[in-house]
Design brief:
- The chain is built from seven helices and no strands.
- By secondary structure, the chain is mostly helical.
- The protein has two domains: 1-108; 112-242, no CATH class.
- The termini are far apart.
- Keywords: Coiled coil, Membrane, Transmembrane, Transmembrane helix.
- Residues 199-226 form a coiled coil.
- The chain crosses the membrane at residues 6-25.
Amino acid sequence: MTAVTITVLLLVIGGFIAFAIFLQLKEQARLEKLRKVAMLNNQLRQVRRYLDEIPPQYQPKDMRLWLFARLITIYDQLIALQPDATQARRRGHLAEEMSEFQTSKQKRRAKPMNDELLIVEVKRLFESFKSFLITAQKEKSIDSDVVHRYSKLMNFYHYKVSSDYHANLARKAFLSGQMETAVDMYKEALSQLTPIKDLPEAQTSIQKLKDLLKEIEDDLALQKAEEEISKSMENEGEGELDDEWSKFIEDSTFQGKKRF
């Protein structure tokens, strides 16, 4: 075998190896791209769920705006990896939704906490969101101070959501005239906030519940006082009637004897 033949064979083998390496790298790049696309799609669903399913009363405006911004960033990353007209359109609609929310001065309506299963699901969302914040911090898409503030809020909401549930039961009991049940439920709503009673965020809620509880207890005390007065007056009235009846009987007896 001549040197030329050997050289050609080496070149062919080297070219084949290089081509195989190229194909392998290309496949790895394709798989990595698919992995990133899948990860971003998961993040899209996750952030959209936070926006849609965390009740408005547990979603401060700045936190909701950050979620909108995060969602737009994910769309941008997705479109850069995999250009798609549908994704671009959704991204445009999302930007409009964010702009409308940012400029709106209308307060979003609170979602009633009236179901125990709902409470469990909302608490799970809080925990999931806290984990998402840590991931976002590692990706440097959120400041550590903001992560700390939002995490503290989620801890506060974890207890407040249970308090709101019992406060909702108390209000229903009050509206249906079950005053003593309303008192018990408001007391339970207050007890749910006991672990976080020293937090500044909890002070307003605690004071509001105390005011409502005192108002109902004062109403109950007034009702009991009125009932006692009413009973007392009834007893006095019955006594007066008995006295009058006795006098009538005595007069009748006396006159009967006189006639006899």
